[in-house]
Amino acid sequence: MTAVTGLRAEEAARLLAMDGPNTLPQVQTDPRWRRFAAEFTHFFALLLWVAAALAFVAGMPQLGVAVIVVVIINGVFAFAQEARAERAASKLRAMLPAHVMVRRDGRPMKVEAAQVVRGDVVLLTAGDRIPGDLEFSVAEACTVDESMLSGESEPVAKHPGDVGYGGTFLVNGNAEALVTATGRRTRLADIASLTAEARPPQSPLHKELRRVVRIISAVALSFGGLFFAVSLLAGTSWRDAFLFAVGVSVALIPEGLLPTVTLSLAMGAQRMAGRNALVRHLEAVETLGSTTFICTDKTGTLTQNRMSAVEVWTPDGMVRLRGEGYTPTAEIIGGEAAVQRARRLARAARAASRGRAVLQKGQWSADGDPMEAALDALARRLADAQDLDDDQVQFRWTFDPVRRRESVAVGSELLVKGAPENVLPLCVPSTDLRTCSSALEDMAGRGLRVLAVAERTLPGTGLVERWPDEPGQYEQHLTLLGLVGLHDPPRESVAEALQKARMAGIKVAMVTGDHPTTAAAIAAEIGLLRPDRTVVEGKDLPDDGHLLGALLDHDGAVISRVSPEQKLRVARALQLRGHVLAMTGDGVNDGPALQEADIGVAMGASGTDVAREAADLVLLDDDFATIIAAVEQGRATYANIRRFLTYHLTDNVAELTPFVVWALSGGNFPLALGVMQILFLDIGTDLLPALALGSERAGPRILQRPPERRHLMDSALMIRVFAILGPVEAVCEMAAFTVTLWLAGWRPGFPFPDVGVLAAASGAAFTTVVLAQWANAFACRSESVPPWRLGWATNRLLLWAVAVELLALIAFLFIGPVAAMLGHAPPTVAGLLTGLLAIPAVLFADYLYKRIRHRHRGAVV
Ligand SMILES: Nc1ncnc2c1ncn2[C@@H]1O[C@H](COP(=O)(O)OP(=O)(O)OP(=O)(O)O)[C@@H](O)[C@H]1O
């Protein structure tokens, strides 16, 4: 019968070929041609088209053509960058396929969710995403979150015969179900196509960038208008006035900025993926960089999640297991009576678990929950193999983080394992109960995770037809069997990662479901808990958000026995304090806290589907140190965006200055750069080095400064551009121009020199700007360190970029027709020498600025 044995593999393959993979139809994004067209029809592009058209009308065809070339190059460049960013993002998505347990050929096996077909029997457990529309055949204390389909936030109870929908989540219990529809035939597919139109909300970075672009454009257009007016007043012809206006506006508009940012975020995301951190949307890269607080759970993130049961306390005494790692041959130390009791306890604990230990090369490894696998290993070590039969369980109330226990009905018995606080109160009072509490404190004090195991006989259970979803009526009058102590070694990388977080000014708190004493011991072992601090328990957290925030707002806070709802309150309270919060979660009910946090972090290896889908960042290796690595990369990416913004804007100052000088002189000082030259500067010098700066690697000290959430265009950046780098470039440029004119005998007040002299002077100005930008590219690599300390060759891409820039300069000067179109000629020796001075001038000014700023702020980047 299909429902029991599942499909045969070939049948599944046939159905897969027939129905197609179990994926939702691609959300209708704009077709490529339309996205390509969009690069030529956005606001700036339209402005430039109008400018080009006016240029033709005004009888300046070269200008018209040049503007069109700018629009085309910018559009193609932006499209290519966005396509690259998109490819990177989809590659990241593909790195995290969802898996499902199915039964095929009578055996449970894990397959990719996309491979599930109609007729498959799927085995689901709390936290799983339901892979298609299905009908439940087994449903034990099962609830499903259907909010994404129905909007109903309360989980819905499911019983055998009920239907479930693809895309919803199993919140509680476990189930088996027969898949009835997959992929585009599911109910979700219908709804998804309805909602495909909805656009995601804009991220802070996106808003910030729009702000920057809007400011610069407003400035550009106002300057353009101003120059138009001034030139007319100065008696210039309409034609020339228009030329100026276009030149000024085109020079200042940062057409290439947005795509460069997107690409830089995509590269950041790719580098994070290389370090086992997958971001689920690009903007998270930047938010990660400004993280100020990390709430991390313990098991698996700070510890290795390689559990072994090392101690069993029973009323008859203690049993210890000792062995290298925890081997199947671990030595059993304890009295005969205690070992007998421990055996019984181990069998009960194993029956109340689904995780199993698999023997590989003389060591146990976990299949399923590592803690439950450790209990299985314990049972196998203590009991006879034939006593461990899996098929007697009649009903299972699976673990959930609110009840903190798991119960099973086996034969006429109820077996319960769980957190001692949640099991001991259900036991009949006895002297054993009193003695166990000191054993519990002792075990937990050594960092062991402690579980209590209990049992009772259920009268007449063979007759139960339908077990209740809530086991409350059975979970009473239990007899305590004892306690198990499980050891889970801390990860080796954690101590160093905590150090780094501390240096980076990021506070770290442990938020765990475990016992306070266990939490304190582990936190002390890894150097998180400070000696003067104590552990707070979830139930003692104040209700008031402000009080809660104040209580937790310090490095090394440890909060134990936290419920998912308390986790959400912790997230809100810390954000109320102004923190940019990263919070980890792997459980079924962690979704809301992960969504609330600025960066929700889920576990890729051990977490649930629910947590992964709510998260912004998925740790492929579950390691705390990976979060710190991702923060580092986030900071590096933000620094890169600032780098090329600085570079772009400096160029703008140099391009604008000739117009300002000309206007201020009332048209008596010749114009050093023409509109065509500016267009060529924008394309010839800006594009490639900006890209190269966007790919700069993180500096070694990026984690040695406190986190800051500053505007992209903050005062430091403005001062550097508009008071230091920009003016120095501009002065050099105007000097090269003036020296050339001066040596040719021209003086202010004289009539303009002849065209040849003007062309050579303008060529000198042009050359100077390229050379200055050449130095500027290196200066922009750091906000605090001069380029020679970074090593000139450490950004290979930049070397290529400046080499191309130099070749472009030579071409623009020496290829006759190009030079003629630009209206300049190769510079004279004096012009060139003056221009060359721009290189040391920019580097020196940058060096002085960095020194002074460094001394004042002690800042390092
Ligand atoms: N499968 C299980 N069966 C029974 N009890 C369990 C199970 N898993 C955990 N517990 C108990 O519930 C407590 C809370 O577990 P939970 O999984 O909520 O903690 P957590 O938040 O994952 O902890 P951590 O921060 O260590 O990852 C544990 O300390 C343990 O006592």
From TrEMBL:
Please tell me where this protein is predominantly located: membrane
Q: How is this protein positioned relative to the membrane?
A: Multi-pass membrane protein
Q: Which SMART domains match?
A: Cation_ATPase_N
What Gene3D superfamilies would the database entry show? Calcium-transporting ATPase, cytoplasmic domain N, Calcium-transporting ATPase, cytoplasmic transduction domain A, Calcium-transporting ATPase, transmembrane domain, HAD superfamily/HAD-like
Membrane-crossing residue ranges in chain numbering: 36-57, 63-80, 212-235, 241-266, 717-743, 755-776, 797-822, 828-849
Q: Which reaction does it catalyse?
A: ATP + H2O = ADP + phosphate + H(+)
- Keywords on record: ATP-binding, Cell membrane, Membrane, Nucleotide-binding, Translocase, Transmembrane, Transmembrane helix
Subcellular locations according to the entry: Cell membrane
Q: Where is the Cation-transporting P-type ATPase N-terminal domain?
A: 1-60
Key word Methyltransferase present in the record? no
What this protein is called in its record is Cation-transporting P-type ATPase
Source organism (scientific name): Arthrobacter sulfonylureivorans
